[in-house]
UniProtKB/TrEMBL annotation, chains A, B, C, D, E, F:
It comes from Nesterenkonia massiliensis. Keywords: Nucleotidyltransferase, RNA-binding, rRNA processing, Transferase, tRNA processing, tRNA-binding. This is Ribonuclease PH. The gene is rph. Gene3D superfamilies: GHMP Kinase, N-terminal domain (3.30.230.70). NCBIfam families: RNasePH. Phosphate binds at residues 86, 124-126. Its EC number is 2.7.7.56.
């Protein structure tokens, strides 16, 4: 039993509020327990100059945290005048993860920017961001289809994509979807990004303390796939409502 | 009659959700129609080095907008690597406005930082931010009192403070609380910050087009005071619930 | 009687030296007592790319202080690598104030940049900058007319504009044109920008300490209009010499 | 057979030149084929202020590329004024990888900074950097022991650590240690950091194109372990010479 | 005969206005023809942290140009967010030149910062800056002596220092003190910094076009010494008035 | 006799390894004793936008040091977010020195960027960089001729160029080619850039302590010419091998 009463292979309560923003072409407020991330998708019917004329589009992402999303206040990166390594790394991960399920030819010379702003953080913000951003992306693609920026039958999204964290607690137990209290003490921490059909887009495992064995790696991957399978269903539910 | 059906001296629907953030010492999600600002107050029982030993505290504020808070996406200031003039100006205005109702001696050597992040913008974001930040500030002061960082009977807040925008539409009508569509065409634009007892903390009037006469100035001030009086009541209501 | 012997409604000695710079299309060294600001107007027969083809021009301003313009040395903003909030705010105020008296259609696709560099500061630098910048602007417009960048009869300037500070001293006296010693102790501080015909372009009043009443606001506005009326005459004198 | 004639599970020629720098406390020029990385370890008998008094040390890393390490010249990050996301990400990876084999208590209040500068790039620069940095680190630890900054018998290094890249070529073949030509077309790309005793420190797999299945993941991990096992031997050889 | 009627070995009209700034501990507005540089010396009775406890002082300099000091407007370095190479280079040259005539032991643990701001540029701004800064420095030293920050008889200044430019015109003529029109076409350009007793502090000669021979170098040095000799007299005159 | 056993007019051992980089169009690893600088020349068949259409090319240079090129580690300029004054100054010096021997018309609308990265520093890094960069430049010009970016018979290089440092030791001895230990104590320090035919491109002499006399200046120039004459031979040797 975990501190919050969950089983080792149980997700926190996940909720997705579509259309939270009235301005964005697609948006979703996603919550994994106390973690809340606002994901917006901004559609632009153009691509960066260096990509023009190739007939393909682009999808990019930016991740950020409000200064008081965490337990103690962090300085704003705009005030510091530069973006930290962690922010860069997560922004790049989100962008790569979503591009893995987008057919850039079908998207055409259009660009979609996903902004994932953490309003409240309690572990798993990057995986919540990927999971919510997919919903915002799907809505932006539909919006663009309605506006005829994208062909009526273009299969822009080749699959869905969701992500979850898994880790090893100090007592050696492998667990799914870690809140901050578990995450901060976990020996091994892994983020896994998986498509709706169960293939891997990204596997990032890090030994914070003791290196981990191949058996532990396999146990963690099993747990992760359990989680992403449920998240894919929740995404489908949200998008069909 | 205005485009959204309001009378010239009528506020948009205003709602204040206290305690929206589970981490901050005080927080409020304030909505003026479609404008939504998340205000958090972070309490620190210390002051910047240059203020130590004087027995007085400090209150400061930072204002920012999410990139897709507006109708078209704006680049993040963290990505641009510097904060724009407008952001600086509004952050300074919010800080000054709140300090006007804080007794720094009663606050003691403590610091409160107000973060006002615009989640969705539809005109009047800076005035909504001031109005919401006061609520977050009041809660942070009470929290600090409970934690004994502030003396039990210290009168830290000398009054309440709220703000509203007023402006002159192209047809010459003076109106209260302008949404974006009105604000973007208004000839004169004024932000007025007023205490609960009806005195001015800040008056900022700007002629965007034709300069304005003293009579127009007086008409705008009358309207503004109507608005801030109602906002003070809404604040009291939120804080007493 | 004030510390420097002036009456409450008396300006400091104001002098304007036109053509101080031999390179700029218009220039004025303006002095309000010990405050000295060098204002230059740079004319460019082009506009920023995003404005091209609309047939209208632009006027912008940049304000800065030499590091030892003040009593103790300030670090250069170029060395710090970023411009402070106060500098941004004043630059924006100067630009808005001057644009209020420029007919952008009559200016045509031309751009005028006003640089206001404070060589020595003793209170009221932003209001001196606006007052001096108008003179530099007027000369640059005449220069451009002579060079045929502007049509012979185009009424580019619709009025003159000048600015002055007013404030309330600790003993409650409202005074005009505050030097540093008064400004640093004033309870309420107001900068008022007024056209030659007496209408307001900008009213910025701030309670540094106790909030101010509507009566005090009116008293300050009366004083300010006395000052800007005299400044408009001094500008006319300088431009006709 | 691969373009350069290697078997799928064969490393490029790897060479390690210890002591390449006459100034650093430890240094190694490591070559994986045409990839050349200069790794230096700088020892400082102090830790950052916030770590003092805890009796533990710190190991950190910075990765960079010379502008013409690559086929076309890249702008210097110092000239651009900020560090890119990729650089940050790799620097953080190298630091984490080395810290996984350091006992911070045994290191005491000392800090070692590893600089990994890519002099010439041909794929696998981050994995070469980790592998070379371990050798530089080991020499710096021995230097510090000789200088009595570290206790004579302190077991600072708990294991060795090495890294290698693996990937899936467009024809589906999984290969070890990809040069640039393979890397730029690979569908899946994985960097694996492994201790001398064969446990994982970091697994980072990314689908650049088609997502990968669990079987492919296992095949890649098998290949990687073959490579890191050989690299651990090469490190031992270098350190014992 | 030169374009402005001067002989090849003749300086432009040089004037030095001491005490131009009422705030600085020493100040001089120096003019070499149309070149005008405001030099202020700011005295601080402290040194940077890393110099404390050694009993010696420091002298440093910062050079800058107002945006419209030149014929066409230059962007402000504060707006660009970084200082250009030329500015850095000249600031460093001024600092070195003045330190060459300061006995740091006699100065004690005090620091003097020289700000040289070019108000109007017409060639030779760096040499005018050095020559004027010496006067401001001398006044700041006397001020500090009066305030007892420096011992009554301490010989802080070991000599005077002045600087001048020399160059070779396209027709091969070597000339002294080049205004902008000559400077911009000169083949070789040299700045020479010389003490009051005629020794060299700095010699910086650059072939802009054809490399120069040793004979030309000697001819230029002869001219330069003529100029700095006169400048030393002008400095003495200014300081004794 | 000097600390390292050399005569006062003797260079350290100089070696030039051409083609050290397999990517650059020209490259040389130059060593002056323990000073090692990697010089690469990057050719681009284009010029910056503002130079297009004039039929002339451009040559520019960037100098940098690896963080542990020196005895104690220096922070990276990319991490600090700005380039220091010394780096700017040396980059500009290298660029000017090489441009002095390039016929920009003959180069045509092409650009060559020289990167001089100090891998290990022991005095004289800027002069080694100039000397090595000339070799890289010569190879890049030949490469471009082979690729027909430059006309077959165009005389792009009008001469060779090399540089050396000279200085005065504390005992008054003038010496050639100072390593760090001599350089850090030298009273006068001079860098001299000379063409293959013996004319000066740049003379930069600085009194670090006592100002120097004209006789000393002449003695130093004699020594420098001895050194650059030998360096020109070494360059010819390298380029003909």
């Amino acid at each position: 039993m975990r501190a919050d009463g969950r089983a080792v292979d149980q997700l926190r309560e996940v909720s997705i509020t579509r259309g939270w923003s009235s301005h964005a072409e697609g948006s979703a407020l996603i919550e994994f327990g106390n973690t809340r991330v606002l994901c917006t998708a901004s559609f632009e019917s153009d691509v960066p100059r260096w990509m023009r004329g190739q007939g393909t589009g682009w999808v990019t992402a930016e991740y950020a945290m409000l200064p008081r999303a965490t337990n103690t206040r962090n300085s704003r990166e705009s005030v510091k005048g530069k973006i930290g390594g962690r922010t860069h790394e997560i922004s790049r991960l989100i962008g790569r993860s979503l591009r893995a399920v987008v057919d850039m030819k079908a998207l055409g010379e259009n660009m979609i920017t996903l902004d994932c702003d953490v309003l409240q953080a309690d572990g798993g913000t990057r995986t919540a961001a990927i999971t919510g951003a997919f919903v915002a992306l799907a809505d932006a693609v539909e919006w663009a289809r309605g506006e005829r920026h994208i062909a009526k039958r273009a299969e822009v999204l080749t699959d869905s994509v969701a992500a979850v964290s898994v880790g090893v607690l100090p007592d050696g137990t492998a667990v799914l979807d870690l809140p901050y209290t578990e995450d901060s003490t976990a020996g091994t921490d892994m983020n896994v990004v998986v498509t709706g059909s169960g293939d891997f887009v990204e596997v990032q495992g890090t030994a914070e303390g003791t290196p981990f064995s191949r058996d532990q790696l396999n146990e963690l991957l099993d747990l992760a796939l359990t989680g992403t399978d449920q998240l894919a269903q929740i995404q489908r539910g949200a998008l069909s409502s």
